[in-house]
Design brief:
Helix content is 40%, strand content 28%. It is an alpha/beta fold and 143 residues long. It has two domains: 65 residues, K homology (KH) domain (GMP Synthetase, Chain A, domain 3, 2-Layer Sandwich), CATH 3.30.300.20; 66 residues, GMP Synthetase, Chain A, domain 3, CATH 3.30.300.20. The strands form two sheets. It has a three-stranded mixed β-sheet. It has a three-stranded mixed β-sheet with strand order 4-5-6. Helix 1 packs antiparallel against helix 3 and helix 4 runs antiparallel to helix 6. The protein is globular. 27% of the residues are buried. The model has no long low-confidence stretch (mean pLDDT 93).
Length: 143
């Protein structure tokens, strides 16, 4: 697992997130292009972060004025990649070493490839960024 470097804004957003939800955030980055914040919460804190009926996450959304994505952390890189792709159902994840680069090959149902990639590639970029930040995975390739 790699050390995650946070920006000052990231630290501020994490403080706000933790005070509004009670969940422990391990990482946050702002995707200003898509007006969203992406939080990685400690394993087991997903329910706490969302709250009953989504009330806690909606409070964060209302306070920041941005769309919020929450990903549950896992020390297992395969499980982490699956978590980042949620709600897309993943058939299989293989992480291989090729030319000194760690590459995750992700097998997705054909019907869900569009959702996995996202409009203008925003979902796959989120997966690539978080995989690199948390597990030193250089690339993620959808099959």
């Amino acid at each position: 697992m790699s050390k995650v470097k946070l920006s000052m804004d990231g630290i501020r957003y994490i403080t706000l997130f933790e005070s509004l939800t009670g969940a422990m955030a391990m990482d946050c980055f702002e995707d200003s292009e898509n007006n969203r914040l992406v939080f990685v919460v400690k394993s087991g804190d997903m329910g706490l972060a969302i709250g009953k009926g989504g009330d806690r996450i909606n409070r964060v959304k209302k306070t920041t004025g941005k769309h919020i994505d929450i990903i549950e952390h896992s020390d297992d890189p395969v499980e982490f990649v699956k978590n980042v792709f949620h709600p897309v159902s993943i058939k299989n994840v293989n992480i291989i070493l090729r030319d000194d680069k760690r590459i995750a090959y992700v097998e997705v149902h054909t019907k869900e490839k569009g959702l996995a990639i996202g409009r203008d590639g925003k979902n796959i970029e989120k997966v690539r960024k978080l995989s690199a930040r948390h597990h030193n995975i250089d690339d993620v390739i959808i099959q």
